[in-house]
């Protein structure tokens, strides 16, 4: 497994051996793309009642403090589970009650929650809060104001005065990392501060020779014209994308809606290093469709056309954002470029500094479904130098004020694959990260205890179809998982790989009625024998390994073989069907796993008992086994 989760067995590491085809760990989540968290506080105009004070601003309350009328949230989204997160400190240590309070009548309410606070901020998460109401008194009297207050009470005469900040209310029973207010609108939080998805991600250190890959969940096909190559000149070490203009080199994606932004927010960012002394006009990226000046929907990134940089949209040099002098960036140095649309406002940042802005109507549609040109404009106006970490994020403006540029390579998916095959995976629902978090520059990162949390209803991780031919698994393979089930429930699936043709799993790994885990495989139109782990305990971390080989398969529990079966030719699959963690995509409707997972690795070889034991011993301290 990767270095975050295990040893390097006979050279197997994050990318050190061809046998490992997937290496994922909850440690390695980046900025949580795919897991948008909307803070519904922002839907209450004027929170908390004084203009210009956003939820990230500390608010000091008295012994009894009412924060805000929350009825509009519950009116709109209903009596469903919510999660409330906030940071609280007190002037002297003491207890604080957090509850819904509204005076004489109760439209919505939930039970009081007691916490013990100190003079330093602590983050408290109150999960699975389902409001009740309205009461009969409310219905009978119908007050003119929608009373449903988030209140805090310490008791009169105690002298305890709480201060709160970073208040976040989300739909769902699980909290996601807090998202800080945006500068332009302190009430607009959540969705627009974190990627909904990464729609294009080209790393200079992925691929070899003249082969590049889209490491986003889309896995867009790339056409390399005239030999754009890898070169060891990246800002982060390793290679970047090298373009030689005299050789007419550029890259084009397959037709895609990744840059069909419509009226929504978006971010395009990348690193660039222009050939030293370069002053001629060059395009680094071109998005959309050009139909002549004043028409079309193309967004063009144009350097050194009489200025340092032009960003123009809609077919020609205007509307635009222009700044700098000719030759400004022809210095042979790496720079970070980021362009965002935040509402109707398009901003351009270089090295994290806001360089220019232009306002468009919020109804202005930008981009189109078409090919994306990298290092060129439709095959012309070619780039000379290097590009790296080319990312398109559709649906959100990642930056809305000057920022510190990234200090590491970006990552491509909610579940990041560090095997070297860049498979990754997607959360199917948004409530799947159970972790305290901290902020590191512009990236929200989990602390070392990060896990994936499955609610047992609709959560699972889709690991896709292993599109990299080098990642194809067949007759020999091994899946390794750390699991901590909340319940050991019959037929709940731990992982599965399915065949779409008849809806029957090639591989299933699930719980059985006697609190065992069952592992069996399908091939040659028949099931092989079932094998079992023995008793699995709820709320306990267990290391499960499923391995298969030419004449059978085996299952391991905590580094020791539990059972094996002799069955030749049972494995008939390749990389053509999806792998799911936490559910089964078959005709039985699926039975999702409830509990936590911490790490997983998939190999296209059958690990030996010694190697499996070594993996277990190397990781057991993290999971306290």
CATH topology of the largest domain: Jelly Rolls
Shape: flat
Helix content range: under 10%
Integer average pLDDT = 78
Total beta-strand segments: 43
- Summarize the biggest pleated sheet: 8 strands, antiparallel
CATH architecture of the largest domain: Sandwich
Q: Could you walk me through the main structural features you see in this protein, from its secondary elements to its overall organization?
A:
The protein is mainly β and 625 residues long. The chain folds into 3 domains: 40-192, Jelly Rolls (Sandwich), CATH 2.60.120; 200-394, Sandwich (Jelly Rolls); 461-614, Jelly Rolls (Sandwich). Helix content is 4%, strand content 37%. The chain contains 3 helices and 43 strands. The strands form 8 sheets. Strands 1, 28, 31, 33, 39, 40, 41 and 43 form an 8-stranded antiparallel beta sheet that branches. A hairpin with a 2-residue loop joins strand 21 and strand 22. The two termini are 18 Å apart. Residues 1-16, 30-37, 45-54, 179-196 and 436-445 have low confidence and may be disordered.
């Amino acid at each position: 497994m990767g270095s975050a989760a295990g040893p390097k067995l006979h050279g197997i590491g994050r990318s050190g051996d061809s046998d490992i085809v997937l290496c994922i760990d909850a440690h390695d989540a980046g900025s949580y793309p795919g897991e948008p968290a909307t803070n519904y506080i922002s839907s209450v105009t004027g929170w908390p009642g004084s203009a210009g004070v956003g939820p990230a601003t500390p608010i000091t309350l008295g012994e009894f403090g009412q924060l805000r009328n929350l009825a509009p949230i519950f009116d709109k989204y209903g009596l469903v589970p919510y999660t409330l997160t906030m940071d609280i400190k007190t002037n002297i240590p003491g207890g604080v009650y957090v509850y819904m309070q509204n005076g004489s009548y109760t439209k919505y309410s939930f039970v009081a929650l007691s916490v013990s606070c100190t003079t330093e901020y602590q983050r408290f998460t109150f999960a699975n809060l389902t409001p009740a109401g309205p009461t009969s008194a409310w219905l009978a009297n119908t007050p003119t104001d929608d009373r449903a207050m988030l209140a805090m009470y310490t008791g009169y005469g105690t002298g305890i005065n709480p201060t709160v900040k970073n208040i976040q209310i989300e739909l769902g029973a699980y909290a996601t990392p807090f998202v800080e207010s945006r500068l332009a609108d302190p009430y607009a939080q959540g969705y627009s501060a974190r990627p909904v998805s990464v729609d294009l991600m080209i790393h200079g250190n992925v691929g070899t020779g003249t082969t590049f890959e889209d490491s986003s969940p889309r896995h867009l096909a790339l056409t390399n014209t005239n030999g754009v190559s890898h070169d060891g000149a990246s800002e982060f070490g390793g290679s970047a994308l090298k373009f030689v203009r005299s050789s007419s080199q550029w890259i084009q994606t397959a037709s895609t809606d990744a840059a069909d932004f419509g009226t929504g927010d978006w971010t395009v960012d990348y690193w660039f290093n222009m050939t030293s002394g370069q002053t001629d006009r060059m395009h680094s990226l071109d998005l959309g469709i050009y139909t002549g000046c004043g028409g079309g929907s193309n967004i063009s990134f144009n350097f050194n056309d009489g200025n340092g940089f032009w960003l123009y949209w809609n077919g020609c040099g205007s509307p635009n954002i222009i700044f700098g002098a000719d030759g400004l960036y022809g210095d042979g140095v790496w720079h970070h470029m980021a362009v965002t649309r935040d509402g109707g406002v398009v901003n351009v940042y270089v090295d994290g500094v806001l360089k220019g802005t232009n306002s468009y109507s919020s109804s202005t549609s930008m981009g189109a479904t078409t090919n994306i040109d990298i290092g060129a404009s439709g095959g012309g106006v070619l780039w000379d130098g290097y590009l790296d970490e080319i990312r398109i994020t559709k649906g959100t403006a990642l930056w809305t004020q000057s920022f510190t540029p990234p200090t590491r390579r970006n990552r491509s998916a909610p579940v990041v694959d560090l095997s070297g095959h860049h498979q990754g995976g997607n959360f199917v629902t948004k409530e799947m990260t159970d972790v305290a978090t901290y902020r590191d520059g512009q990236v929200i990162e989990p602390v070392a205890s990060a896990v994936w949390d499955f609610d047992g209803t609709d959560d699972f991780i889709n690991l896709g179809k292993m599109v990299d031919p080098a990642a194809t698994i067949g007759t020999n393979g091994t899946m390794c998982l750390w699991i901590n089930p909340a319940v050991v429930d019959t037929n709940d699936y731990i992982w599965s790989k399915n065949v779409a043709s008849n809806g029957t799993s090639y591989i299933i790994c699930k719980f059985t009625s006697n609190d065992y885990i069952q592992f069996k495989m399908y091939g040659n139109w028949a099931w092989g024998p079932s094998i079992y782990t023995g008793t699995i305990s709820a709320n306990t971390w267990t290391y499960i390994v499923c391995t298969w080989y030419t004449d059978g398969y085996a299952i391991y529990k905590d580094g020791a073989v539990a059972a094996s079966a002799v069955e030749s030719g049972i494995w008939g699959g390749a990389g053509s069907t999806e792998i799911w963690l936490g559910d089964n995509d078959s005709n039985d409707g699926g039975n999702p796993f409830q509990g936590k997972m911490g790490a997983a690795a998939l190999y296209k070889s059958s690990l030996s008992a010694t190697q499996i034991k070594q993996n277990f011993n190397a990781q057991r301290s993290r999971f306290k086994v």
